[in-house]
Design goal:
Dna Topoisomerase Vi A Subunit, Chain: A, domain 2, 10 helices, alpha+beta, DNA Primase, Chain A, four-stranded antiparallel beta sheet, 289 residues, 2 domains
């Protein structure tokens, strides 16, 4: 293609980015929260309220899929226009919205009401500090699931609503995210105004660390679990709202396993965030002390 008439360009610009991805590249969409998405193919892109933005770059919000292809996937104008025109001719798109109802629904796990089993398991079998566990139970930051008696580790959005959860068996080596959990939120213990945050793969790892530090007299740390059990492109999403809410954040301290998944996750965080934050591993932190 060597020329695109102005009237055709105007029509192509009407194709918004969410409609483009839902119709032609749905495998690249990741639900971030109820009304927004991020992309597997470019994890810095967020789509919300009909607009897309790159959180690594400053600039005005845009809607057009044509602009996205040119600016983020480095198509030339003619190649991007030709690509979209061919897609529209082959399969006319269905207009998409952020809250389409075909998404899997998150259902809050039932609370057993009596946390005796999980308290005994966490304190006696896992050796965690009883005062810490009682405090978390009192604040409903952990609870016992009805019937299964799993430990439930909830994740809350900025409004304080439970929108995700991780369940851990106290009888077997089993743990998993609850179906429908929103990728942008996970189990966390946060301190307002903290300039550093400790990042973990699993909620139990987080509790063991906090318990050990509490016994040693260390308190008031911010800790967050990432979605390591999900596809690698989405594991870091719970970190984004925390970064947005805490401008004083300077340091990310990683507590990942030294397996291939943990190493790749650490490398990806350093690549994405090393220019804005200090990203280091906890073993380095201990050696420096």
């Amino acid at each position: 293609m060597t020329y695109v008439p102005p009237e055709r360009v105007k029509e192509l610009r009407k194709l918004d980015i969410l409609t483009y991805f839902k119709n032609y590249r749905p495998e690249d969409l990741l639900r971030y929260d109820v009304c927004s998405y991020v992309l597997r193919c470019n994890s810095a892109i967020k789509i919300e309220k009909g607009y897309w933005s790159n959180w690594n770059k400053k600039g005005r919000l845009k809607t057009s899929a044509l602009d996205y292809l040119i600016e983020e996937e480095h198509y030339s104008f003619l190649n991007a226009a030709g690509h979209l025109q061919r897609l529209l001719e082959i399969l006319p798109p269905v207009k998409a919205t952020e809250n389409d109802e075909h998404e899997e629904v998150f259902r809050v796990p039932w609370n057993n009401g009596d946390p005796a089993r999980i308290r005994a398991w966490l304190c006696e079998s896992q050796g965690l500090d009883a005062g810490l566990i009682d405090e978390l139970i009192d604040k409903q930051l952990i609870y016992e699931e009805k019937y299964t008696h799993h430990v439930v580790f909830p994740g809350f959005n900025t409004k304080g609503e439970m929108v995700s959860a991780y369940r851990k068996s106290i009888a077997f080596d089993f743990g998993e995210p609850v179906s429908g959990s929103l990728s942008g939120y996970s189990f966390a213990l946060k301190k307002s105004g903290a300039d550093s945050i400790h990042l973990f793969e699993r909620p139990l790892d987080l509790l063991k660390f906090v318990s050990g530090e509490k016994i040693r007299g260390e308190k008031d740390m911010s800790c967050l679990c990432l979605h390591m059990a999900e596809k690698e492109d989405s594991f870091f999403l719970p970190l984004l709202p925390y970064m947005k809410e805490n401008e004083e954040l300077k340091t990310l301290i990683l507590h990942f396993d030294r397996d291939s998944a943990g190493i790749r996750a650490g490398e990806k965080l350093k690549k994405l965030l090393d220019e804005e934050y200090e990203v280091r591993e906890w073993r380095e932190e201990k050696e420096e002390c």
